[in-house]
Amino acid sequence: xxxxxxxxxxxxxxxxxxxxxxxxxxxxxxxxxxxxxxxxxxxxxxxxxxxxxxxxxxxxxxxxxxxxxxxxxxxxxxxxxxxxxxxxxxxxxxxxxx
Length: 98
Fold this sequence. Notes:
Layout: H1 2-16, H2 19-28, H3 35-55, H4 58-97
Helix pairs in contact: 1-4, 2-4, 3-4
């Protein structure tokens, strides 16, 4: 029982450590994390979610769902940022041809 509580507390700390970065991302409308980190984080959370689901551990499922929401929002801003960058490159290159 004690080890379960220690695991849950550690899990909560890991979840909440991402919240300041999410707030920064929403505030700046730009994700400051690299693609490699975001993709590894996403895949790690997906695999851990299925692991928690397999164990039927509701606290783990809730934790990993919350983490998936955070990383999905970060990825949204990263993709949006890259689409704006690509759009600017296309507009700049077509503008300079004239």
